[in-house]
Amino acid sequence: HVFRLEDYRPSDYLILETSLVFRLSPEATRVTATLTIERRDGVAASAPLVLDGDGLTLVRIAIDGRELQPAEFLATPDQLTISQPPSAPRFQLLIETEIAPAGNETLMGLYRSSSVYCTQCEAEGFRRITYFLDRPDILSVYTVRIEAKLDEAPLLLSNGNPAGSGDLADGWHYAVWHDPFPKPSYLFALVAGALGKVADSFVTMSGRTVELGIFVEPGKERLAGYAMDALKRSMRWDEEAFGREYDLEVFNIVAVSDFNMGAMENKGLNIFNDKYVLADEETATDADFANIEAIIAHEYFHNWTGNRITCRDWFQLCLKEGLTVFRDHEFSADQRSRAVKRIAEVRTLRAHQFPEDQGPLAHPVRPRRYREINNFYTATVYEKGSEVVRMIRTILGTDAFRAGMDLYFERHDGEAATIEDFLKVFEDVSGRDLSQFALWYHQAGTPNLTVSSTHSPAAREFTLEIEQSVPPTPAESRKRLMHIPLAFGLVGADGRPVAYSGVDGATVEDGVIHIRKRRQVVRFSGVAERPAVSLNRGFSAPITLSVEQKADDQFFLAGHDSDSFSRWQAFNTLLTDALIAAFRQILGGGEPVYIARLTELAGRVAADEALEPAYRALALALPGEADIARDIGKGIDPDAIFSAREALALAIAKANEQAFSSLYDRLADKGPFSPDAASAGRRSLRNILLDYLTLLPEGTELAARHFRSATNMTDRAAALTVLAHRHRGSPETAKALADFEAKYGSDALVMDKWFQIRAGVPGPQTVETVRALTKHAGFSMANPNRVRSLVGTFSSANQTGFHRRDGEGYRFFAETVLEVEKRNPQVAARLATALRSWRSLEPVRQAKAREALLTIASAENLSADLRDIVERTLA
Ligand code: ARG
Ligand code: ZN
Q: What string of DSSP letters covers 824-850?
């Protein structure tokens, strides 16, 4: 079945109130739902009531206290139809269902994870609990009573505020929760089990005290301190940056070890993958700390962007996700370094969203059709969705943007809204017409700008010729012209901005050229000297650029652009150019370029004390193998890319050995560990220097020493990565891997790092290692974190291993995807996207990759999730 945006229509019935009683038991949980149903105004009394289900067993059904006769309803596992509901406009429907959480390996609906009952309802998991109008525009007020055996589940949580608890007969007890805010069913949550609690409180801007709780596996309370701190900072930040105050008496977070995604924003009861809650220096890296901070913030921010204002239908997913990602990006930028954060965001966007947008799975930020909504929790909806919100702010300016957000909260609070509603508030506060801009939501594909420049000293005129194009994407061969806000700077020989007296050919405001036509010639008058032009500053638009630029200008910008993002970009572009030239040379054509100048520039950047260490680390990180492949575009031979990249790294290391080595020594951590951004930045610079230095003679000893002397997981994991990836087969590596396993064998989240490192070892032998590791005692096909660490890393981050020329990597991949699918279709479908760029491979690998996709496609009883991904990938 295909769902289409244009088919939206409001439901005939509303569910004003939802009362749920759960009697929890692993194999047979009874759920009694009492729904206050109202026929919508103007709907005929004869309209049937059709509720969604998914694998349900009906036990009992009654309306207004009267049991229904078999002829009065039709219940299948996937639907409940009452063909003649009462003629009264309002009635009470009671539904009792029985479910088996213990056997639920899909991790959707109600399931058990390490003896804890928990739920995941977004997008369509609530229908696995009871029959319901399981769609986001049905807002209902929930009261939830949970009954469980006291010894099995001393803790009983749901959404909203506590509303009573007590003991029952036979060692059972109960708790009642009431959520006064009407909400869609996807935000329902329940947790029950034996968990440890970290308690704190927060006083809101209006002076209300909110009780905060983070619940974790007993004994791990110590590891939740950083998450709690991040939560309190998030709550304060949303008040200051957006005027948003928390609205319930309690806010709870629960960490579970089996979770399909990162986390979930259920009203007042966020549920998290434990890897985004638990951290200390011994077990978590700096990247883990940063992720925890960002995801705690993201889920908290959903309370307003997602929960108070939700989505009319799932086509509007970006309304809450793109906006909330934008908010968490801004939060992290304020908590850490804005410049560094922006570069990291763009690297993520390019690594995940660009290939999606440029391949068979491309879709608009607001899709118009889907077969399986779970497959649309994508980088396009989230990350590009965030970039679209950022562009609105760029176009309107900070103040008008904030006014628009204020109006959005005021106008749509308590509603299920659309992208049109969202755009309208910005039009209303600014008086601007955003209809061309709206194409960013509706049109898939990464726009490209081709730019060339000329300078006429005689006319004192500098000219930019800019041409836009949007490449075709599946189901959209013809594209309309977009409104692209292109931030720019004209940079003089002294590094200062070059003044101009006038401009024509485009609207230029606040350092932004507004591109709206296919071709625009922008003339700057009064420009005496030829400037270097810095384009798409701050990554003002999520586009690709083809700039005809002199290498000298590019090197100049890499050393002098006052916009730190563009300065990083200039260096990165030069590195990419050099890597692509080296790739071509390996395949038998072309000449190497820039090597000496780049090694020299790398040395200068590393030593530049005026730059933050974290920034220097990002600048020194060579484009990844997948980044290079994406920029090459077609005929990809991952082995040649790998060799090209290693050679450039070695050249940089050799040319800077002394300087890198003494800087490495100076950067050693002194004093106690702190996860703050500046300390993390120093560690990241030191670890990238380690990466270079271990390419040189005695690199193995250096890495082994780094490993042995590490006092935190960031350094330990960095050293183990270098050992395993560069010094495979050395006794030091074998010892370090064994020591790590011995020390952390019982800590699943830490072992995930060990699986990741081993799955990432370059070279043809890794497929065998990974296959063997699926039998490791610490591995489980049923746990999403384990699967992603081992199989996910291998297939999406190990270019030379996965793309082994004989296709063995793909064969392993097809087998494993099908194996995971038996338990968890959602995780399998996500895993399967690793082959989305198969058409850009060279012909031999391309044919083998296609075979693997066909193997998956022809498997029996394929789930809707996996079928959708594989069929679109092959189309
Ligand atoms: N809303 C959650 C978040 O962005 C993600 C939930 C995804 N769920 C799913 N079934 N795909 O934090
Ligand atoms: Zn989200």
A: -HHHHHHHHGGGTTGGGB-HHHHHHHH
Nearest Cα to Cα of residue 352 among 314, 313, 317, 325 = 325
Residue 794 to residue 758: CA distance in whole angstroms: 9
Nearest 5°: the CA angle 333, 336, 339 is 60
- The secondary structure element, H or E, covering residue 486 is strand 484-491
Token code pair at residue 50: 């059709």
Q: What is the pLDDT of residues 229-242, one digit of tens each?
A: 999 999 999 999 99
Euclidean distance between CA atoms 844 and 875, whole angstroms: 19
Axis-axis angle for helices 225-242, 286-301 (nearest 10): 50
Mutate to test the pocket of ligand 1, among 264, 302, 317, 830 (most ligand atoms within 8 A of CB): 264
Structure tokens at 392: 């609105």
Mutating to test ligand 1, I would choose from 253, 377, 378 the residue with most ligand atoms within 8 A of its C-beta, which is 377
Q: Mean of the per-residue pLDDT values for the chain?
A: 98
Give buried/exposed letters for 170-207 (b at 16+ CB in 10 A, else e).
eebbbbbbbbebbbbbbbbbbbbbebbebebebeeeee
Give residue-wise pLDDT tens across range 119-155.
999 999 999 999 999 999 999 999 999 999 999 999 9
DSSP states of 206-252: TS-EEEEEEEESTT-GGGGHHHHHHHHHHHHHHHHHH-----SSEEE
Specify the 3-state DSSP secondary structure of 328.
Answer: helix
Q: Which residues pair with 213 in a beta bridge?
A: 199, 252
Give the distance (Å) from ligand 2 centre to CA of residue 407.
22
Cβ of 261 closer than 6 Å to ligand 1, yes or no, is yes
Q: Residues with Cβ < 8 Å from 255, sequence gap 6 or more?
A: 214, 215, 216, 217, 220, 224, 272, 273, 274, 276, 277, 278
Read off the pLDDT of residues 685-735 as tens digits, 9 standing for 90 and up.
999 999 999 999 999 999 999 999 999 999 999 999 999 999 999 999 999
Pocket flag, ligand 1, residue 328 (CB < 6 Å): no
CA 213 vs CA 174, 200, 209, 314, 380: distances in Å: 19, 6, 13, 30, 33
Q: Is the shortest distance between the CB of 123 and ligand 1 below 6 Å?
A: yes
H/E stretch holding 200 reads strand 196-203
Q: Which of 225, 327, 241, 328 lies closest to 284 in space, CA to CA?
A: 225
Structure tokens at 48: 């049937």
Q: Atom 11 of ligand 1 has which residue's CA nearest to it? A: 374
Q: If DSSP codes are grouped into helix, strand and coil, which group holds residue 788?
A: helix
Helix (H), strand (E) at residue 117: strand 116-120
| Other beta carbons within 10 Å of 739 | 14
Q: What is the pLDDT of residue 493?
A: 94
Structure-token match 């030191």, residue found: 686
- Residue 346: alpha-carbon gap to chain centroid: 13
Strand partners, 50: 81
3-state secondary structure of 316: helix
Amino acid identity, residue 451?
V
Q: Is the separation of the CB atoms in 149 and 29 below 8 Å?
A: no
Phi, psi of 870 (to 5 degrees): -70, -40
**Ion ligand 2, residue ranges at CB < 5 A:** 321, 324
Q: How far apart are CA 337 and CA 74, in angstroms?
A: 58
ipTM higher than the 0.95 cut: yes
Closest ligand 1 atom to 377 CA: 11
User: Which atom from ligand 1 is nearest to the alpha carbon of 123?
Assistant: 10
Q: Express each pLDDT in 613-631 by its tens digit.
A: 999 999 999 999 999 999 9
User: Is 265 near ligand 1, meaning CB less than 6 Å away?
Assistant: yes
- Asked whether 122 lines ligand 1 (CB < 6 A), one says yes
Which DSSP symbol is given to 539? G
Q: Could you give the C-alpha distances from 332 to 229, 329, 345, 516, 589, in angstroms and in order? A: 14, 5, 11, 32, 44
